[in-house]
Amino acid sequence: MSNNKIKKIGVLTSGGDSPGMNAAIRAVVRSCAFNNLLCDGIYRGYEGLMEGDFEPLNARSVKNLISRGGTFLKSARSAEFRTKKGRELAHQHLLKASIDGLVVIGGDGTFRGAMAFGEEFHFPIIGIPGTIDNDINGTDFTIGYDTALNTVVGAIDKIRDTAHSHNRLFLVEVMGRDAGDIALSAGIGAGAEIILIPEQNLGKERLIESLKRSKNSGKTSSIIVVSEGDKVGKNIYQIADYIENTLTGYDVRVTVLGHVQRGGSPSCRDRVFASRLGVNAIDAIIRGEHGVMIGVQNSKVVSVPFSEAVKGDNKIDKELIRVADITSI
Ligand code: ATP
Q: 202 alpha carbon to ligand 1 midpoint, in Å?
């Protein structure tokens, strides 16, 4: 069913920024131009939506953007948008600007906000998953995840050089409060000896056993990749203390990678992925779809209802865990 009523789209980025968000905005804007739709960029996510901070964008407004990390529309987290009053304000600004469809690029919080807004005002909204955490249900990948993996692997490669030179044990904390995807994939890619993720509590005893096995097998240095949300210790420093206090002869160092994982020029994979999602988001809104996220499952573009996307039961890949266990022996 085509929705010929849509004439003007608004696009925004919300929540944590991720590399490739610019490529997604560019694809949305150019797809609007291709389909003869007007497009406004909305600054600072839902904050800008409630303030009417809009700017008309055309195909040329998004030049030289595809290679840039972050989001030129800026992003924000907004407490006010969680209130009915805040969302009413946003609706008034959209009506005033004659915007009749929205594309929101962000994580599960962004989709929760979009779901509430779309249902309250029967407003067509399409979501695009933009977060480095890869923690969205219903899509195999999120924009920025691949770039973050490459950043983490590059950093751990450097740490390994020094770990090896000094026979040290390094604990490297990577992002992922609820999802261990970054830790697991980057851990395999960087050849980590042990990977600690929130979905699987290894426990302190097994961690120590594992380290002993490593040492007995002739390893002189080790890298342990720890996801932010891992439950083995209260935090990475506590795990480091525990190892030093429990095992003798370990020189333990901690590196917290932090926000370097969010930035940087997007990988080609993220640029292509973001471009596909942007174009397909506009196709979907023209078809009359709303309240859905555009994602990819088994290499095919799919529409997933927001209610499914925010379920948060992003399961860790057991096959990857097996590969990590075998290759770190
Ligand atoms: P990331 O995964 O990078 O943290 P995110 O999109 O999950 O990104 P959040 O800060 O959780 O980031 O959500 C973005 C914004 O969406 C929030 O600041 C808030 O304005 C809005 N939002 C989140 N949940 C709701 C909700 N239940 N109702 C209304 N708005 C919401």
A: 30
